[in-house]
Amino acid sequence: MELLEIVLTYFRLLSTWVSTIIASVIIWIPVTFVLFQVLRLWIFFRAKRLLPHLRVPFPNGKKPLLVGFFHPYCNAGGGGERVLWVSIRAIQSRYENVRCIVYTGDTDVTKECILQKARERFQINLSRPNDVEFVFLKRRMWVEARPYPIFTLLGQSVGSLVLGFEALLKFVPDIYLDTMGYAFTLPLFKYFGDCKVGCYVHYPTISTDMLERVSQRHHGYNNASFISRSLLLSSLKLIYYRLFAYAYGVAGKRSDVIVVNSSWTYGHIQALWKSPERTHIVYPPCDVSEFLKIPLVKTDESSVFSIVSIAQFRPEKNHALQLTSFKKFIDGLTGDGSACNCRLILVGSYRNLEDLARIEALKALSKELNIDHLVEFDLNVAFDKLKSHLAEATVGLHTMWNEHFGIGIVECMAAGTVILAHNSGGPKLDIVIDHGDEKTGFLADDEESYAKALKTIFELDRTQRLKIRTNARESVKRFSDSVFEAKFLNITGKLFI
To answer: Could you report the per-residue pLDDT of 22-46, keeping only the tens digit for each?
Structure first.
């Protein structure tokens, strides 16, 4: 009898718990729905009062179509920013009733300064600059890596929701385009802002390669050595990554139009977002017209072997590998004094104090390697100075593992350098590939192979180098502004209907 009483008591308790859960669900589902609708309506009516001058009809009487671009670092001067400005230029040329709004965290500059930098760095002049408005965001620090020493991906993604919600509260557009890779803002604008949404993905926040690296316990800039050495920590991180990858896929799939910048990015986005009918490859615009004016035959090449790197000073760019590979290359040269004629020039922009600290660490590393007298850092250079560096360079150097595309690589090839890029991602699949069955450059993946490739290029005669340069320059014509604009407008056209 006691056993029967225990069983009956257990089922009574179980019944009570189930009833409570069901009652809670019945109550909270409609409550949540009502709260969601109230918040949507509040945002909608609030938006009508914000920046009213943007909603004023054009002189021809047409109602403006408001297109928002979420690009918190629009003044950074990198390849992603070039995509932003060419996209705006293309949309302005196609649609006369469009006004563009750029959400940015660059609160230390004015609209005029941002547009001037776009002109100087990218040679981009907008036809209707008065129809471009900037919404300045104050919470950009939420998407930076510094506040999140652990769970960085999760922290930055939650931070992007905070920043995205700030953007949504400051202005609600008709069309929302994420051009910087903050996928978690897509459902925010789609469901709370009632916007048509699209995105241009430069690099997936998480990739199957990252999952594989953690699974195989390989050390890297995003997988600390103390984690890769521990089976337990690696297993926990793998669970975390898989859960995050699922959430990332759910968010990204909300996009009405998905544009990616390379075959490598396409493969990873397909694996995570699973939206093949809405996903398209459009190579980023590379205006190489000015670089094509640089003579392929370099007059002073015999006296100086100049190696130039073009990349923002971010951790994934792996500038340290450039320094150590250069050191190994120098050490491998014969003692005839030829090493004294070699130069490594690191050209790039920085975004914040973290990047500046990284630059100082690289300078310290070059001194530690005893090559600081052969290494030069040139920061935030104007276009003319960049062109000058490439005109004098023999080699264009790139070391980022799984670079999504690599506009800097295309620029180096167009400028007539012999490119040496990382044997992965976009460079391997889309850029440094044979053209007309002839070589367009070199690929490497570690210190040994980079040093070996540098030595190979160093030992090529002028005729051999010229043949590679000529073929490489011919191959990059498929990455022009005009090709990008035509494809981008064709794919995103459904958002403007």
So the answer is: 777 677 777 777 777 777 777 777 7
